[in-house]
Inverse folding.
């Protein structure tokens, strides 16, 4: 593999006009416990924008490959790997060394501690990957690790008939809206734009509030939407 070449994007100085530059480099070889992934799709989250602008709270090494989320196909397997074989379809977990338990000081992140996913080929610890079910495309699977898992976690405990509040139309809120509807909840969504309100309704929102035109939208929400009753109200944004 090592004499073959691939393309990657690498971050430039934060805040510069060209956020990333295209590079050509050697395709890496997987070591013990690692696999080589041919990356077929990667996704951009809010986090990636603040990293590119230099606003992320953790230090980012110079010249790092950006993006925390990706999906692809295993094309080579290192010694000691039994979880995956050549040809398997995989996506990343957001925290590559957090297999159980709670987030702690030793928890690592893509881009901050490991090269990210905006690359053609990538060596990854097999433990940091999950298999993709057949019904998901690479593009669909690549959107899940950061925003969708955040939304999924925020909705733990929600039951059919509950009311869920989603704020805005970012990645986390849009996944939360769709998951909450699938769980049988009623969804109240907020946005700053009427054109986005129409899209929220298409995605299943039962009631949409424009937080720009209704300044005291929280009061309106309690008076007219929940009528003072809610068993479980979830705020999935941030
Ligand atoms: N992505 C993740 O996996 C993740 C993980 C953990 C935490 N978070 C946090 O969760 C938050 C949302 O993440 P995201 O990736 O979905 O962000 P995003 O794509 O940037 O979306 C944020 C949305 O919030 C709405 N908004 C902005 N200002 C607002 C305000 N003053 N009041 C109410 N709504 C406002 C806007 O919706 P409208 O344009 O419709 O008004 C905006 O599109 C961020 O704070 C992020 O740091 C994200």
């Amino acid at each position: 593999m090592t004499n073959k070449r691939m393309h990657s994007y690498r971050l430039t100085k934060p805040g510069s006009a060209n956020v990333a530059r295209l590079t050509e480099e050697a395709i890496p070889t997987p070591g013990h416990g690692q696999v080589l992934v041919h990356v077929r799709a990667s996704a951009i989250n809010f986090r990636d924008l603040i990293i590119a602008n230099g606003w992320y709270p953790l230090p980012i090494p110079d010249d790092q490959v950006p993006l925390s989320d990706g999906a692809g196909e295993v094309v080579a397997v290192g010694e000691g790997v039994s979880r995956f074989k050549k040809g398997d379809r995989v996506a990343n977990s957001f925290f590559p060394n957090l297999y159980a338990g709670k987030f702690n000081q030793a928890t690592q992140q893509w881009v901050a501690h490991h090269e990210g996913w905006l690359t053609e080929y990538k060596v990854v610890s097999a433990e940091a990957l999950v298999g993709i079910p057949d019904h998901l495309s690479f593009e669909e699977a690549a959107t899940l690790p950061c925003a969708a898992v955040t939304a999924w976690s925020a909705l733990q405990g929600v039951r059919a008939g509950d009311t869920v509040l989603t704020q805005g139309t970012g990645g986390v809120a849009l996944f939360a809206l769709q998951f909450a509807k699938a769980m049988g909840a009623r969804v109240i969504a907020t946005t700053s734009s009427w054109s986005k309100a129409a899209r929220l309704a298409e995605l299943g929102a039962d009631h949409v509030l424009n937080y720009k035109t209704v300044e005291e939208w929280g009061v309106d929400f309690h008076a007219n939407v929940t009528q003072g009753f809610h068993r479980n109200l979830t705020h999935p944004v941030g």
